[in-house]
Amino acid sequence: MRGLFAALSLLVAALVLASLLTGPAGLPAMDSLRALILGGEGPLPIVMREIRLPRAILGAAVGAGLGLTGAALQGYLRNPLAEPGLIGISGMAALGAVIAIQTGLSLMAALALPLAALAGAAVGVALLVALAGPRGGSVTLILAGVAISALAGAGTSLVLNLSPNPYAANEIVFWLMGSLADRSMLHLGLALPPMALGAALVLSTRRALDALTLGEAAAQALGLSTAALRWRLVAGTALIVGPATAVAGAIGFVGLVVPHVLRPFVGSRPSALLPASALGGAALLLAADIAVRLIVPDRDLKLGVLTAIVGAPLFLHLIWKTRSGGRV
Amino acid sequence: MRGCVPRSRVILAAAVWLAAALPAAAAPQRVVSMNLCSDQLAMMLAAPGQLISVSSLAQDPRMSPMAEQAAAHTPNHGRAEEIYLMRPDLVIAGTYTPAATVAMLRRLGIRVETPPPAESFAAIRTEITRMGALLGREAAARDLLARFDADLDAARSPSRRGRAALYYANGFTSGPETLAGAILEAAGFDNIAADYGIATTTALPMELLVMARPDRLITGAKWPGQSQGEAILDHPALAALTPDGRHVTDRDWICGTPFVTRAIRSLE
């Protein structure tokens, strides 16, 4: 187990480094790192500090947040199909962000953007938890997720189409698919503090989620308050997914793939799966973000495209197994 | 059967009407322009009363340097129905006008011309001459052309001023084979897009823009409302790159018209 965490941490560190050294400008590696750390004259420190560094940190943070919330939701709903992107939480966050941007709220106060996205995510996750709590079946969860996703996507498209700005309608793709291109330190400052708070809240549910694996009645007999657990998860998920979506768009499947891959290594214990999924999510998103820059360097290929190519087949596989009655 | 007109008389009436209409084909009397750029050239060249409608965009002062003159004309919104009801004998659209609208107007028997957007000074001259011929105002076109040539000669920078970059929403830049590129060149700037082999308008990653170290940054204008595409222009890396401000393109940069000489002068 300790080996797994060491390996994942090393992988994330290596990918952050690779992300810092990947870009269309093809800069020499040693010069870039020197410029990043020591600064200096000329354009190189600007590229490294203002363009590549926020992108790498944001990739790691958003990936970690999505992996963590995916694992936590799956633990709480006791359903391997739960994932913030697929069941509409990211979509609701995007809707909140788009409303904040298009009404001009985000211009009046910079914090309005992450807060509105947070509110959207909170509505989404609260709806889901109400509709498909620990006792709800997979079908309820997926149907509720489809409905919430569709509503959020339609709302986002509507708001952007009504905008007087000629570029707004093209942004629908960004909000549905996500991208880390040209994010700045300003975005990082907006998103990281609430995400850190949310991560602390979600990680604090580890023991409770362990108890819940015994079944709801057994968990209650052990003194677990399911209502308190539910509120911590709803708030934590909203605090992570909302700001992450506000700056990077809705990126799907990370929270689905990562816990699924890591579960066998941690013996299916949520207390170990949560931090492992955070590291795994960071690694997956960083890898995807490096890949979009290598595959089509001169276009802004959306991150969600790659994560969906990896994640959708797995999702179908999971549905197949659920359908045939086997536990996953 | 009272009121039933013999068919021969209908044909005769039609023939008379056609004959009356024929000279109009040489110099159209009811011209509708439905393209921001042809709107401006048409307003400069048309005889009084000849141009009956311009596009609604021409009345928008953010996009049109002739918004005041355009306010005197009936606006159209590029819809075939409203344009047909204006009974034009010539419609001037553009290559980017929706093909369905152009086809519909032509099917309704209206002459539709689609001049291409002018992407160079030579093309602006061609378009002035073309517009003069379309409106039957060749003499006015020759006058305008002479004034444009003189203005352009006066506006051109005699010296080189350094390197400049054009940067628009969504990270697009324009190379030398575009109108903005031609304006930059005439103002005495070397376009950094050429360093990367960019000739037309295409996306340029911000990293490459920063690495090219332009002396001047010329960005696209912001539109009302918000968009992620335009948010790129507020990126701190751009502020760090050219700390002493930047130039913003305006309505004089959009169309290939004699107003480009004002755009050239604005870069001084």
UniProtKB/TrEMBL annotation, chain A:
It is found in: Cell membrane. Coiled coil: none annotated. It is a multi-pass membrane protein. Pfam families: FecCD. It comes from the Bacteria. Its main location: membrane. The chain crosses the membrane at residues 53-73, 85-105, 111-132, 139-164, 184-203, 233-258, 278-296, 303-320. The keyword Cell membrane applies. Keywords: Cell membrane, Membrane, Transmembrane, Transmembrane helix, Transport. Belongs to the binding-protein-dependent transport system permease family. FecCD subfamily. This is Iron ABC transporter permease.
Automatic annotation (TrEMBL), chain B:
Residues 1-26 form the signal peptide. The keyword Ubl conjugation does not apply. It comes from the Bacteria. Residues 30-268 form the Fe/B12 periplasmic-binding domain. It holds the Pfam family Peripla_BP_2. Keywords: Signal. This is ABC transporter substrate-binding protein. It comes from Paracoccus benzoatiresistens.
